[in-house]
Write a structure and sequence with these properties.
The chain is of the alpha/beta class and 664 residues long. It has three domains: 321 residues, Rossmann fold, CATH 3.40.50; 111 residues, no CATH class; 128 residues, no CATH class. It has a 13-stranded mixed beta sheet. It has a three-stranded mixed beta sheet with strand order 16-17-21, with no helix packed on it. Helix 9 packs antiparallel against helix 11 and helix 15 packs across helix 16. About 4% of the residues have low confidence.
Length: 664
Amino acid sequence: MPDYEKLGSFYLGKKYELAARRLLEEKVLYDAKDLTTHAMCVGMTGSGKTGLCLSLLEEAALDGIPAICLDPKGDLGNLLLAFPQLAAEDFQPWLDPSEASRKGLSLDEFAVQTADQWRAGLTAWDQDAARVQRYRDSVDLTIYTPGSNAGIPLTVLTSFAAPPAEILDDPEALRERVAGAASGLLTLLGIEADPLSSREHILLSTIFDTAWRQGQNLDLPSLIRWIQTPPIDKIGVFDLESFYPGDERLKLAMTLNNLLASPSFAGWLEGEPLDIRKLLYTPQGKPRLSVISIAHLNDSERMFFVTILLHELVSWMRTQPGTSSLRALFYMDEVFGYFPPTAKPPSKLPMMILLKQARAFGLGIVLATQNPVDLDYKGLSNIGTWFLGRLQTQRDKQRVLAGLEGAAVQAGTGFDRGAMEQTLAALGSRVFLMNNVHDQRPTIFQTRWAMSFLRGPLSRQQIQTLMDPRRAQAAADASTASTAASPSADTSATAGQPQVSTTRPAPPQHQPRPVIPGDVDERFWPPQQPLAQGSVGLYRPALLAQAACHYVRASANVDHWLDYTLLYQPDPALATDPWRAAQRLPRGVVSWSTQPEQGFGYDELPAEMLKARQYKSWGKGLADHLYRHRPLRLYRCVELKCYSEPGQDELDARMSWAQQARER
């Protein structure tokens, strides 16, 4: 096996003698672990920057390392144009007829010429069709288009759902997530908002914080309602009406409602939910190379999406165990405007967090730009590898040199500014200087031939052509799953919040408070919002069960306790087995009260719920239900001779095993 095919070695090109303008035979093999200290690629148009970055992503794919690739310009779809057969008919649909005409060739002749050129280019760089095939087989290649159905639609509105427990239990992480959601949404609305002084930002942040701490998921309709009637009376020391009067809150709610009602916004409501795990791996555990194209979005939509995506990435990162090896990549093809030196767009904070903290979790950040002036080089001093191509102006060179100097200081290494400046001035097309803090000296190299066909930005129609087979397969899978679904599936896994109490106009005959048997605990769910004027709250009956289950299996090294809170609501009669129809409530979703609120009536209580002996029967039924229907599911990896951790689903288990295999 050649050295460049070994796991963890990324074949990027061959060394280049700059003085003699001569390509050397020594290959440049980049250590994948170095990407945990992140990388920056800078080069003007025509420098070969796109080819280098796509080659790096191809190498990661060959190693089974998943990547999320944010594509503001439309070039990254080229990663799907890798043709193992290198046949002319594979290239032909992606060629520009006008370019063929300029060359005096028919489209078919131009396709033959292009196929021959790609075959010769791969051969010259010690690559062949078999390597292209391995690349195609190693990862699942998908193009996502948020707000559009050209590719696979992606909706971010589920990102207003309550974050995982790891975020809720970390005050700093929760504050960052709250601020990101508020900033991203206000950006989409075209409202420039300072987190410290903007009433809109403070109100939205308070709403997100309150809802998420209660375990409640938010969507745009519920957010509109909460803006009009927030679940709070005060913000800081001021009462709500003094801080943000109701008529002015209504204007903000109307702005958000107009967005929701706009036909152009309909695309944002469709598609797969933004889930970092699913962007990195298929449900079967195969690594993914997910290209997220945002070239079709306007500036405010791009900023909104990038902000939400980065915060989701931070949240996912914080749920991962630490590792020193490369677990996954995040690549952004043009960072201009998202990480400026002085301004603070909402995308800047999560990007800074990733650059500072992602290393400990094995997440590599790779950024690229052809506008090196407008970057926060102080923030980029955390980056360990710089790929520098041909630069356009002296100002560009000086800004890059300042960034390199900061990185050297951060790493505690020396830096010869004069020599570096001379080298940058001499770089040509596809020739790059790699300054890696893990190496003793900079390396000058020429990039290898990309396996993917670099045809330039893809149009919406071309993206749709690439993704049509994927959409057809997804529709077929959904149809199969729908046919196979059991109509009597256990609903206990539902994590949505049940409606224990509602608000309605006062009915003419609400029931008095029922008398519960003395040895039965009675609890009340406090209302989430104050009653509307002229209305009466209504308490509805439900069975509540709280239990702790102990799971033990020595062969799997499992000794695990799991708490359950189950809630069953009669509809309207009691089920024979109420626990099969019960909802499992998420941890911390509500705090129960022993006394009812004032101004509430009571729905009719089923007769069985007034009998003390019935509760003993339900208690026995609960124990039987938990034993039979609440197993702790574990997954086993035969090759690694290990089991998944308690609570891991199949995808998380496969991701963990893939990481363990790379670290062995």
